Amino acid sequence: MTRHRSHATRLVLACSTVLAVAACGGGSESGERTGTLKLGITDAPVDVADAVVVQFSGVELKPRNGAPFTVDFLDPATRTIDLYPLTGTQREILLEGEQIPAGEYEWMRLMVDTEPNVVDTYIGIGGGQCELRVPSGAETGLKVNRGFTIGVGAITDLTVDFDLRKSIVEPPGQTADSATCGGQAYLLKPVLRVVDSLEVGTITGHVEPLPQGCDAGTPPYPGNVYLFGPYTDAVPTIDDYDGIDGDGADPITSAKVDPTTFDYTIGFVPAGKYVVAYTCSPDSTQVDSDTDVGNAEVPDENVTFEPAAGLQLELAPNETRTIDFPVTP
Fold first, then answer.
1. Which has the closest alpha carbon to 4: 98, 138, 145, 109?
2. What is the spatial distance between Cα 225 and Cα 306, in angstroms, rounded to a whole number?
3. DSSP run (H or E) holding 138
4. Which of 90-94, 102-106, 194-198, 297-301 has the lowest mean pLDDT?
5. In 10 A of CB 329, how many CB atoms?
6. Which pTM value belongs to this model?
7. Which terminus of the chain faces fewer neighbouring Cβ atoms within 10 Å, N or C?
């Protein structure tokens, strides 16, 4: 595997052998066809934590017709990022502007440090740092299976969005050596989407008055706004986070309502048709709000939305849409 050096002298792979580009030439002093990759990271929030810290060491890229290569971070060799506050339109830059061979790419992989029983990547709960393990993370990293293209002489600006609500798992029997967090080790099973940062819009708004039963001090007060879609034909039937096919569409991302301003922002939304809905109901990714309600072995969960079927909207690139809740005629 070839490694590039970020922000230093780079070993750029010849496009004739790596990318099998028909016409090779131009784009750099050495004659390779190259473009620039800018890569940021953001997240959809999670209710149970006050920090989700991941230690990154580089980014692996797979050309369509070539071998994978890695862009290593230098000075410092790792980037430690708290994903928790990176909501709305905020993101942290992993690659500021990396020159790489032009062409089509099949996937990227965010390389992370996840040594067992070492708090390098962790989740913060109640002031404690709980070990956060990535299954096979040291070998495979966090893989994003979405193709993209690096244009010759062009800047490609991508943002990777973590859905932390879906990604954080508390499996029974997973223990850490440390007594912190009761010895519980958490798993980061990343649910990721990558978007073109130059072709996205923003959905924002205000939630007030809050519905009855949405009480301060009761999570997830003051609630969340869910985004469903995109869709082209049939409008999706909205559903809670449960990962179950056939009972409605899970949200693709969400935004927490600010407890002071009661505002929310969903950023990095690709252009298209969507449904948005607000809820103040607790919503576990491990519980289906339909089939598990009334099951004595599983805590009841009844997720209600405002409006009940959500609100349809169409978003254009670089557009900011304001959607307030409750929805008024």
1. 98
2. 9
3. helix 137-140
4. 297-301
5. 2
6. 0.77
7. C
The Cα–Cα gap between 86 and 94 comes to 13
Q: Is residue 11 very low, low, confident or very high in pLDDT (cuts 50, 70, 90)?
A: very low
* Residue in 139, 126, 228 with CA at minimum distance from that of residue 180: 126
Residue with the two structure tokens 């169409």: 314
Tell me the residue type at 203.
I
Nearest to 327 by CA among 208, 173, 204: 208
Token reading at 148: 């993209």
Whether residue 117 is predicted with pLDDT greater than 90 in this model: the reply is no
Give the number of residues written for the chain. Answer: 329
317 Cβ neighbours under 8 A, 6+ residues apart:
198, 199, 200, 201, 271
* Cis peptide bond prior to 101, omega within 30° of 0: no
Integer-rounded Cα radius of gyration of the chain: 21
Both tokens of 195, joined, read: 């978007």
Q: Exposed, middle or buried, 88 (CB in 10 Å: 0-12/13-18/19+)? A: buried
Q: Of residues 203 and 244, which shows the higher confidence score?
A: 203
* Least confident segment among 30-34, 83-87, 104-108, 194-198: 30-34
Q: Which amino acid is at 256?
A: K
